[in-house]
């Protein structure tokens, strides 16, 4: 875990871990949560991008994580859905006291979008933080309420666990060594849980993951002039980017939570 992320966790009075509501388990950082537990900091889980998942599924994940002892809220930061509830949940977790809320999470889960939604009229950054002597300037704070400040972890938490998740969230799509391999694996995972959703997004019929990439490339005009073959690498990068940007409807159902 990057040192700046550790600094955020140590500095904050409450840790908010931002998860992708489409696949919450795969976007939890167990190594980060272990550090939070060791330091005795309270943890609040936030399922972001909730507008991409049916409410019943969100409620199931909420019950699942709360059975594990973690208060959980679901929101859609870019749509300003659930922002008031999140603010209330943060205040409850802080027990009415002032302090610092540290936002952590994998890349592309929407930490900055949540902070922007919470800032509202408290849009100015604040440095140094009045409750924190010797505050490190590299950790930028934002006022989100009269007595609450937020830190957006400037470092990225390296994804642990699932190899596909590490590849998708550990690099920008255009920086992947083999974007086609990653995109094919992502397509298979999406088809496993949300069969047919990719055909609706790209408005094509396809027989295999590779066939989908080829048809996306042809539809967008990404063709090699030399031989007329589709540029599947470009289609792969675009599909991964569309996934990050929430253009693909896809979600995983909770299992093994003791209630389903």
TrEMBL record:
Keywords: GTP-binding, Nucleotide-binding
PROSITE patterns referenced in this protein's UniProt entry, alphabetically: G_CP
Domain CP-type G per the UniProt entry, residue ranges: 2-159
Superkingdom of this protein's organism: Archaea
GO molecular function, one term: GTP binding
InterPro entries linked to this entry: G_CP_dom (IPR030378), GTP-bd (IPR006073), GTP-bd_ortho_bundle_sf (IPR023179), GTPase_MTG1 (IPR016478), P-loop_NTPase (IPR027417), TRAFAC_YlqF/YawG_RiboMat (IPR050755)
Segments traversing the membrane: none
SUPFAM superfamilies (UniProt xref): P-loop containing nucleoside triphosphate hydrolases
Sequence similarity: Belongs to the TRAFAC class YlqF/YawG GTPase family. MTG1 subfamily.
Protein name: Putative GTPase
Organism: Metallosphaera yellowstonensis MK1
Lineage, highest ranks first: Archaea, Thermoproteota, Thermoprotei, Sulfolobales, Sulfolobaceae
């Amino acid at each position: 875990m990057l040192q700046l992320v550790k600094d955020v966790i140590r500095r904050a009075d409450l840790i908010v871990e931002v998860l992708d509501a489409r696949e919450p388990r795969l976007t939890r950082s167990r190594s980060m949560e272990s550090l939070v537990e060791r330091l005795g900091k309270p943890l609040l889980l936030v399922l972001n991008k909730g507008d991409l998942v049916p409410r019943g599924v969100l409620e199931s994940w909420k019950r699942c994580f709360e059975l594990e002892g973690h208060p959980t809220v679901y929101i859609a930061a870019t749509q300003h859905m659930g922002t008031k509830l999140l603010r209330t949940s943060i205040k409850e977790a802080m027990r009415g006291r002032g302090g610092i809320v540290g936002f952590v999470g994998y890349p592309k889960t929407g930490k900055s979008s949540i902070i922007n939604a919470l800032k509202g009229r408290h849009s100015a950054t604040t440095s140094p933080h009045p409750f924190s002597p010797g505050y490190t300037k590299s950790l930028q704070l934002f006022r989100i309420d009269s007595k609450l400040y937020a830190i957006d972890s400037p470092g990225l938490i390296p994804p642990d666990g699932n190899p596909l998740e590490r590849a998708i969230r550990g690099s920008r799509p255009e920086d992947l060594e083999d974007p086609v391999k990653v995109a094919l694996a992502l397509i298979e995972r999406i088809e496993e849980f949300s069969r047919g959703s990719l055909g609706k997004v790209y408005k094509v019929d396809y027989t295999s993951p590779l066939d989908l990439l080829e048809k996306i490339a042809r539809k967008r005009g990404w063709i090699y002039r030399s031989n007329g073959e589709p540029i599947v690498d470009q289609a792969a990068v675009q599909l991964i980017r569309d996934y990050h940007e929430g253009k693909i409807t896809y979600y995983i159902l909770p299992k093994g939570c003791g209630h389903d």
